Amino acid sequence: MSGSEALKLHLTGTSYRNIGRFASRAGSSVYRLSSSALTSFPHCADITRKYSVHFCGVLLVDGKYVKVKGYERKIPVLYGIDYLTHDILTYTLSVAENYQTCLSFFSSLRLLNYPLQAMVCDDNINIQQACKYIYPNAVIQLCQNHYKQNIRVNLGLHTHIYLKWSRLSRRFFNDDFLFDFNL
């Protein structure tokens, strides 16, 4: 069995272990065999750069905390999705959702030649500042769900789910905002 044959079988969903059983080899042996065939493929970043003209330039950026073996607590993965194509362009897995992590994320996005014009994100100031540093002309918009959560918290309409947002939302809404709308 050649490396390209093993790779084709694996790409159709067959595990290396099952391919190894079929070829009377160990799964690790089949993996090494198919890995050599992978070198003929272009890097995924090169493919993204080639097709970057199809992206709209509006990016949804969010973070999700995931459990990772070896860490006591969940750690954030920061990802960006093109608004029209729904492609996940890049992601960064880090121990914190801090400025350095966000700067790394937007730097890798810049290396992909992403034409960022606008970004929709939560109210994490690190994401916004890193975006402005790498893409100074980008327009930043607060996600509609986060915007509504901030309003609920400040009007006292929140449930226990929204209590965690109360500290963060104070930076966007203050008593002057409520007074302007006679609330």
Radius of gyration over alpha carbons?
22 Å
The fourth-level CATH homologous superfamily of the largest domain is: Ribonuclease H-like superfamily/Ribonuclease H
Report the uncertain regions: 175-183
Strand content: 15-25%
**Overall pLDDT:** 83
Summarize the structure in words.
With 183 residues, the protein is α/β, with parallel strands linked by helices. It has three domains: 3-41, no CATH class; 47-142, 2-Layer Sandwich (Nucleotidyltransferase, domain 5), CATH 3.30.420.10; 145-180, no CATH class. The chain contains nine helices and five strands. The protein has a five-stranded mixed beta sheet. A hairpin with an 8-residue loop joins strand 1 and strand 2 (75-82). Helix 5 (99-111) packs parallel to helix 6 (125-134). The chain is elongated, with a radius of gyration of 22 Å. It starts with a helix and ends with a helix.
